[in-house]
Amino acid sequence: MLFSAAAPILLTMAVILAVAFGMRQADESSRAEGARFLEESILRAAVHCYATSGQYPETLSYIIQNYGIYIDRTRYAVHYTIIASNILPDITVVTLNR
Q1: Alpha carbon of 37 to those of 4, 52, 57, 79, 83: distances in Å?
Q2: Which of 3, 41, 57, 74 could connect to 62 by a Cys-Cys bridge, CB 3.0–4.6 Å?
């Protein structure tokens, strides 16, 4: 008798937990996809700059100002390391856990 009364509550809780878990997974997937997209966008801008000027941009700020790249600093950290003007920079985008 007690189990039959608690069954709808337990079922409702299970559904709520499943939905919450699914939303969390979707958010994590969205952030990872956003990081990949941002990294590819920065890379494309750097390659475009090299193709038009013969050198890679010296700073990430140059790419942001001249190529319309937006970085949500609350969601992503970007590491842009230039080695030489004729060597592809090391570009890493890290998703922040907030």
Answers
A1: 50, 22, 19, 15, 23
A2: 57
- pLDDT at 45 > cutoff 70: yes
Nearest Cα neighbor of 39 from 98, 96, 94 is 94
CA–CA dist 59, 55 (Å, integer): 12
Contacts of 43 (CB under 8 A, 6+ apart): 91
The tokens for 41 are: 């966008």
Question: Running DSSP on this structure, what letter comes out for residue 54?
Answer: S
In the block, tokens 């994590």 appear at 28
> 């878990």: which residue's tokens?
21
- Please write the tens of the pLDDT for every residue from 7-43: 777 777 777 777 777 777 767 777 788 899 999 999 9
